[in-house]
Amino acid sequence: MSTNAPAPPQARQRVETPAAQLKTPRKKRTWVAPVLLILPSIVVLMAALGYPIGWQFITSFKKFGLLQQFGAAPEWVGFANYIALLQDPYLWVVLGRSLLFCLICAFSTVAIGGGLAMLMKRVGTAARLILQIAMLLAWSMPVVATMTVWIWLVDWRRGVLNWVLDKFGADSIGHNWLASPVTFFAIAVVIVVWMSVPFVALSIYAGLTQVSAEVLEAAEMDGATGWQRTRLIVMPLIAPVLSIVLLLQLIWDLRVFTQIKLLQEAGGTASETNMLGTYIYQLGVGSGDFGTASAVSILMLIITVAISWYYVRSLMKEEN
Amino acid sequence: MSLKSVATSFYTLLAVVIALAWAFPVYWMLNSSLLPNSTLQSLTPTFLPFGGSLDNFTSVFKHNDGSFFTALGISLTVTLSTVAIVLFIAFLGALAISRFRFKGRKSFILALLLIQMLPAEGMFIAQYKMMSSVGMLNNVIGLTVLYTAAVVPFTIWMLRGFVAGVPAELEEAAMVDGLSRTQAFLRITFPLLAPGLVASGVYAFLQAWNEFTVALVLMDGENQTLPLWLRGFVQSSATRETDWGMVMAASTLVAVPVIIFFLLVQSKMSSGLVGGAVKG
After folding, report:
1. Under CATH, what is the fold of the domain B55-278?
2. Number of domain units in chain A
3. Residue A25 at interface with chain B, using a CB cutoff of 8 Å
4. Interface touch A3/B104, C-beta < 8 Å
5. A44: contact with B, CB 8 A cutoff
6. Domain that holds residue A141
7. Alpha carbon of residue B14 to chain centroid
C-alpha cells in the first residue's frame, strides 16, 4: 500500500470516460448500482444508530426523576437539563478532567510513538523486529485483559511496581496508587499510552518507509544537515500520517471509558475520577437520570465534532 | 570504533530495552498465570515460572461449571457473525464510493466520518432502550447488529483504499476484450482485493472480540461475552484475597488467541490501516 494513491479527480476521469464510452446505454442507470451497493450499510447504520441518536436528542429535553422510575411518563422540560448542567460545577470539573486527560494522553502517545518510529528506522533488522513484536503484543491485548494485568502490576500489596520502587528505597510497599485521584490518573495515563503507542508508532514507521532514500541522499549531497533533512523533507512527507493519528488519538482518548471504569472498580473513588464516559454511565445506568445523561452525551458529541471538524472539512475538500 | 557505530549500538541497545519494557506486562500475565497462588502471595515477586504448572488454567475451566466455555461460545458467535456481515456490507459500500460517482456520494462519506466520532458511551442508554423495546435485550443477534454498525464505517474507509489501489484500467482492458463490467470486476479486481479483505476482517474481528461497553450494558446474567466474563471473574475473585494466579490465567485465555491471530496477519493489517486511513 502506498500513500501516494491516484487522486480522486483522476479516478473520476478513469471510471467515467472510458466506461461511459464503452457502454453508453448504461449511463442512465449509473445511480442505481451504487445506491444498491450502499443500501445495506445504510440500513444497518440506521437500525443501530439512527433511532438511538434521535432518542438521545429528544430525551435530553426531558426530565427523569423518581416518579419515572415507577412508570410515569417523563416531562418535557426544554433546555432545563442543559441549563442545570452548565450551572453545575461538577460537570465542568469532569469536562476539564476529560479534556486534560485526552490532551496529555494524545500528545504523549504521538510524541513517544514518533520517537519509537524513528528509532525503528535507525536500528538494524533484528532490533527493529524485536521492537515491532513488543508493540504488536501490547496492541493486540484485549482491553479488559490489559486492565487486569496492569491492576495486578500496581496492586498495593504485592504488585511489582511497589516492589521495584521499594528496592530503590522508596518505601512504597502497601501504597495504594488508585486511592488518590492524582496517582489514579497517572496510572491511567501510563496504561492508555502503553496501549495506544503501538498503533501510532507502527503507522508513523509505515509513513517513514515511504520517504525515498534517493531524495534524502540528494539532500545530503547538497549539504543539508541531519536536522534540516528531518525538518524539511521527512516531516512534510509524514505530516498527513501524524495529523491523522493525532486526531484519532484525541477522539479515542476523549471517550475513554473501559479503562477508567475498570480502574474505578479496582479501587478508585468514582466521584473523584469520573470522566465524561463514566459520568454518563453513572447518571444513566446508575441513577436512571436519562435526561441529564443524554444532555451530557449531546455535549460530548458536540465537543468531539468540534475537535475533528477541521480534519473532516479538509478530507471533504479532497473529495471535490 | 567510529562515532557512527557507537551511535548505532547505542540505538540498538535502546530499542531492545524499550521492547522488553513494553512487553513486560504481557510477560507478567503469562508468568503469573503459571505460578501457584502461594508463590504470588509472597512479598518478593517471582520473575521466572520455574516449577510452574497449568493448574490455574484447569481451575478457570472448572469455575462456575465451565462458564468460560459458554462465554467463549457467545464471543465466537457474535464475533464471527459480525465479521461475515461487516465484510459483505463494507465491501459493497467501498466498491460504490471508489468505483462510482453518484449523487449523495459525498454525504455518504461525510456520514461515515461523522459516525466514527459518535461517542459510543453517549449512546448506550439509547441503544439499551431500543433493544429493550424490540425484545432483543440480552440477545446475541441484537449485539451483532450493534457491533456491525460500529465497525462498518471504518471498514468501508479501509477497504476503499484497497479498491482504489487496483487500477480501473485493468477492468477496462477486460471490458474491451468483451467482458461485462460485473464479469470484469469479479474476474480481475476481486482476486486482487484478498489482502484488503483479510486486513478488514481482522480489524472487525478485533473490534468485536474486545468490545466491552455495549456488551456491559446490553447483556446480562449467563449471557456474557469473554471480556464481560473476565470482568465478572475478577470481581468474584476480589471478594476474598484476590487469586491472582487464576485471574491471570483467565486473562491469558482471553488474550492469547487474539495475540497469536494478530501476529499471523499483522503485516497486512498495519499497512491496511495506514493505507486506508491516509488515502484520499
Report:
1. MetI-like fold (1.10.3720)
2. 1
3. no
4. no
5. yes
6. 87-202+239-319
7. 30
